[in-house]
Structures are given as structure tokens and as C-alpha cells.
Specification:
Oligomer: homodimer
CATH topology of the largest domain in chain A: Rossmann fold
Radius of gyration of chain A: 20 Å
Protein name (chains A, B): L-erythro-3,5-diaminohexanoate dehydrogenase
CATH superfamily of the largest domain in chain A: NAD(P)-binding Rossmann-like Domain
Strand content of chain A: 15-25%
Low-confidence stretches of chain A: none
EC number (chains A, B): 1.4.1.11
Number of helices of chain A: 11
CATH class of the largest domain in chain A: Alpha Beta
Structural class of chain A: alpha/beta
Domain L-erythro-3,5-diaminohexanoate dehydrogenase N-terminal (chains A, B): 8-150
Distance between the termini of chain A: 48 Å
GO molecular function, one term (chains A, B): L-erythro-3,5-diaminohexanoate dehydrogenase activity
Pfam families (chains A, B): KDD_N
Helix content of chain A: 25-40%
């Protein structure tokens, strides 16, 4: 049976590209592939945090080492990647991806499954931001999801929105199943968190609650949530003492938030885990141990129409757009 | 705020017992607690497999070391535990758990959150079975779920059923949401897998498919599934080439089955992950990378009525009861 992207898997043989240890990033494309000239990587927040903490100022060397060794930017510690923007360079005659040479696109699938080779030694990256300017190439295939970048938004803003566009789409779908639910978002002042808050309101949430780690973060999200609570999302007692939700969305990129989310969710409710720092066993056993009849969802990054929905929310919500713009300014200044 | 079992957490302070590195297993109980004289542990399959592979014949020493160090049987590698049976020894005056001294019970919450102390050095365990005869004590609290063992079933059989009783309950709930679905179970010949197959049929599955690693396993489950497929659940092409399901249930206790499950599931379908060997990021990024619009569920081990439902399925299905009995005989003989 044909496996999407399977041709590029070098080892172990037979797995999908995301599960592979090493991909083939040769620039020559097969008839159904597309080659992209890469301009910028947007590292996954959990991955960037781990790399910074483990490697400090040598983070650039580590990213180069990973990409050279694996043929993709797949952090072996966090298991996560990120996404990229670039310009379509060559489209194979049998490619089903709807792009043309010259299109500036963002990939909406993870870097963990995208063949990538870097050509510039990341000379323009100072290692202090998740956004990594670079030169190199990447290979896409028919089941890759890519969005042509809109003309009306700063490409870096669009990239940051598209990176997390699965979160608002799935949040809206889940919220719409409940009648007048309360929705809590742990990490509500972040990118996926703030988008999820706005999406929840649009999908019928009667009340939205943003949980933030400190007053500075709380200030960012006021106006986008009905209520803002300052609490450590890793502290079940602190969170559940102040928040009771039908749908709880976890967007905090640090480990250990599973139990607070479960304890804050009413029986019959749903927890959606978008953080790549989520522990499967902590979530499963935590709910069991609390005798909590809650649905636990792994945040699938793909839903049909997710990119357009997220960009639409940012266009329609000045506060959201300003939050993203401020985060980008902070990234560049830090 | 009160945190269930929080009093027994020694480090780190403030987390729930399951997240704790170390619990206090002192035998003296608080007014709302229950002390159980432990007769037998049933180690989680993924945990037992890891311990056997890593420690071989010294597995007994390793279990003793873990319980002494952590105050609970919480495998630090797999993050999983198991469950226990024992006899209620003392019930605090404010305990809400409905048990009386002398009741023989099974805990339906994980050993990863149950304070435990062993008193016999596991002298009666040969280290070759997940079922560990022992003497010691454990502490339960009001939000622990425990079932009084039924009189009509061998206690070891009942324990094996109760250990995985969350799987058939959640499978049935999900299957009932679809109209005439096909349901595939990866690892269909195992304990949680076979129960899930029978539960799926009872909940309206028009067709059930068991995926097994070899002919010997396939033979165990014939009669309990409409179709039996021999394929490696870690091989996406092998599985998705032969199985197409609306609901896919993952009960294989080895890592690397996420992508096969996702690829075998139709758009709009659901994958339920019960295996503790599941990788959160492999599941989330795999679905994104395949542009698969499937719901990904973390198998919560608790649903109201799950114990009674699973025991009822075993009582009503001779083939299921025989499969469990054969597994117990094999465990004892190996």
C-alpha cells in the first residue's frame, strides 16, 4: 500500500515520515512532489524552550546538527518540530498539492515529517527566537497541507497564526456540541490559547476563562476572555479551586498540566490537549485516578478549513491581532 | 482547595498522587481513608514488559526498589502501574468509599496513585507473570474507585477483567455515536482488545475486525470478531492496506502503533488509544501530517458503571471468558 511520503523514509524502513529517525532530503523531486525554497522556520514552542534550556547559546549548532542527522527538524527530546514558510520552486507533473512556482506558502504539517536541508548554516539566526530565518529547501507531497500566505497580513504574523490553527478549529467543533458551556483555556494568553478563546466564544461558549501564570500574561488577554485567572496551570488545587469548565483547553507549553485540567472540568466535559508537552499516561491515569468522567482529546492539528478560520478570527478581532503582533515584537526584541 | 489524596503526597508538594515522585504509605489512616491488606498486584502489561526486558530475572528486586523509593508501584520508565486486590482492613469513620472490613476488593484506579508498602519481599513471586502475589498494605480514599470482587468468578479472572474495564465501556460509548460503523481493534486478542471487540458489537458495530500480530494470536480471537487480520500494528502500510474502520481501538502494548491506527481510520472517524505505550506527539503530529480529520481519544480508564459492564460481558460471552481463562493459565505456566 502507498504510504504518504514513504519514499523519503530512510530509517527505519516502513514507517511514516513523522515516525522515521531519518528522512531523505535530496532536492531532486519525484513526479508527485513539490520543492520549496525555505525562508523561515517557526520552531514549535516546546521544542524551542527545550533546546534553549539544554543548549543555551549553542542552540544554533544543535538545530543544524539535528537537521543534518535526521533530514528534518525533529527535536528528539520533545518529539515536536514546527513549520516553515518558503517559496515554491518546482512542482512535479503529478503533484496534487495546489501550488504554483513562485507562491509564498506556509506548511501546516509538522517539520517532524518534512524533508529539510539547510544551506546557510543559520547565519542570520541569533538563537533567541522561535522564528528562524534561513536558506534551504524542503520537500512536500500530496498529503502535505500548505497554505498560500495572504497578501493582507505580515507573513510572520500569518505564519504564527497558521502554526496553531488546529487549536481554534477543534475547540470550536467541541464547544459547539455543548449547550451554553463554560470554556477554560490554560495558557490563554499564548498564541493557540488566545485563538481558542475567541473561537470558543464564536462557537457558543457562554463564558470563557483564560488561565495565565502571572499578571503580565493576564494583561495581554484581557478583553479576549470573559474572565482572567492568574494561577499556575501545573497546580491542580490552585486551578480547580477557581475554575470549573465544561470544556478545558490546554495550551501551556510546559509539562505537568494534565491533572489541573482534568480536575477543573465538570463530569461529562471535555479536555483538549494541544500542548506537545502533554504526557499520555499522566492524562489517562489522572482521569482514572480522579474517577473523572471526562473526554480526553489529543489535539489533532488538522481539520478541514482550519487555516482560513484562524486567519479570519485574527482579521475580525483587533485584540487578537494586536496580541499576535506584540508577541512577534517581543520575539524579535528578546 | 482539597485535592483527592493530596495528604499522601510527599514530593513534589502540591501535585496529585499520580504525578508525585513519592507518596507517604504509612499504615495509619486519616478519617476519610481506607487501609487494604494487599494480596496480589496485577502489573500493567506495558510496565511488566519493560521491567522484564530491562531487568530480566532481577525484576523482583526492581519492583521492590521502586515501591520502597516511591511509596507506590509506579514504573518510572513507562509511567504506568497496574492494580491490586486485597481485603479491607480498616475503614476510617469519614470514608465515603462503600466498603466494609473483610470485603475482598479490587482497586480500579492505577497503582501509580495508590500508596503501597510491601512486607514480604515478594518472596512468592517468580518474576515471570504480571500477577504478583504479595503481602503488604495500600491506602485508598474517597475518590478511589474499587469494586468488591464477585463471588461467581475466579478472583484472578475478575482482576484481569477489572484491570481493563475502561476499554469496553469507552469503546461502547464511542461506537454508539456512529451509524452501523466498522470497528477495528489493534491487539484484538488481548484482554482489553477482546473485551472492546465484544463491547463494540453490542453497541451497534456492523462489522468488527481484530488485528493480531501472528496466527497464534489470531486463533484466540476467532469467534469474537467478524474478521481477523494478521498484521504488524506498527506497520501503517500493512494495516491500512487491509483495514478501513470508522472507529479504531488501539490495545497493543508496544510503542509505534499510532500511525497505523490513524491511517486505517476513515475521515470523520475516531481512534481510541488505550495502550500506555502511546506517544502523545506521535498521535497528534501523525494525524496532522496525514491531513486526517479523525478524533483522537486518550482512553480514560474511568466511566460510570465500567466494572459491572465488563464483568457482564465476560459472564455473557463464553468465548471471552475462555480467552481470559487461557491467558491466566498461560501466565501461570510461563
Amino acid at each position: 500500500m502507498w504510504v504518504p511520503g514513504g519514499r523519503r523514509v530512510l530509517e527505519p524502513v516502513g514507517v511514516l515520515p513523522q515516525a522515521a529517525w531519518r528522512l531523505d532530503a535530496e532536492p531532486e523531486i519525484a513526479p508527485d512532489e513539490v520543492r520549496v525554497r525555505v525562508e523561515r522556520l517557526n520552531l514549535d514552542a516546546a521544542s524551542f524552550r527545550q533546546l534553549r534550556e539544554a543548549h543555551g547559546d549553542r542552540v544554533r549548532d544543535e538545530v543544524l546538527r539535528i537537521v543534518a542527522a535526521r533530514g528534518k527538524m525533529h527535536n528528539p527530546v520533545t518529539g515536536s518540530g514546527g513549520m516553515l514558510i518558503g517559496v515554491v520552486e518546482e512542482v512535479g507533473p503529478e503533484a496534487t498539492l495546489r501550488v504554483r512556482p513562485g507562491d509564498r506558502i506556509a506548511t501546516l504539517v509538522s517539520l517532524t515529517l518534512t524533508p529539510l536541508r539547510l544551506a546557510d548554516g543559520l547565519a542570520r539566526w541569533d538563537g533567541r527566537s522561535e522564528q528562524v530565518p534561513c536558506d534551504g529547501h524542503a520537500i512536500l507531497h500530496g498529503r502535505t497541507v500548505a497554505a498560500v500566505l495572504p497578501d493582507d497580513l505580515d507573513p510572520r504574523l500569518a505564519l504564527a497564526v497558521l502554526d496553531v490553527c488546529g487549536a481554534p478549529a477543534l475547540t470550536a467543533r467541541v464547544v459547539a456540541r455543548y449547550s451554553r458551556p463554560t470554556v477554560a483555556v490554560l495558557g490563554g494568553s499564548g498564541k493557540s490559547g488566545s485563538l481558542s478563546l475567541v473561537a470558543a466564544k464564536g462557537a457558543g461558549a457562554v463564558r470563557t476563562v483564560a488561565v495565565c501564570p502571572d499578571e503580565a500574561e493576564a494583561a495581554r488577554v484581557r478583553g479576549l476572555a470573559d474572565e482572567v485567572v492568574v494561577a499556575d496551570a501545573r497546580d491542580p488545587a490552585a486551578v480547580a479551586g477557581r475554575v470549573r469548565a465544561d470544556v478545558t483547553v490546554v495550551c501551556v507549553d510546559v509539562p505537568g498540566c494534565e491533572h489541573a485540567a482534568i480536575l477543573a472540568t465538570a463530569d461529562g466535559g471535555t479536555v483538549i490537549f494541544f500542548s506537545m508537552a502533554t504526557s499520555f499516561s499522566a492524562a489517562a491515569l489522572g482521569a482514572e485516578g480522579l474517577a473523572a468522567d471526562v473526554t480526553l482529546l489529543i489535539g489533532n492539528g488538522y481539520l478541514p478549513g482550519h487555516a482560513e478560520m484562524a486567519l479570519g478570527l485574527v482579521r475580525a478581532t483587533p485584540g487578537l491581532r494586536e496580541l499576535f503582533a506584540a508577541r512577534l515584537r517581543a520575539d524579535c526584541a528578546s
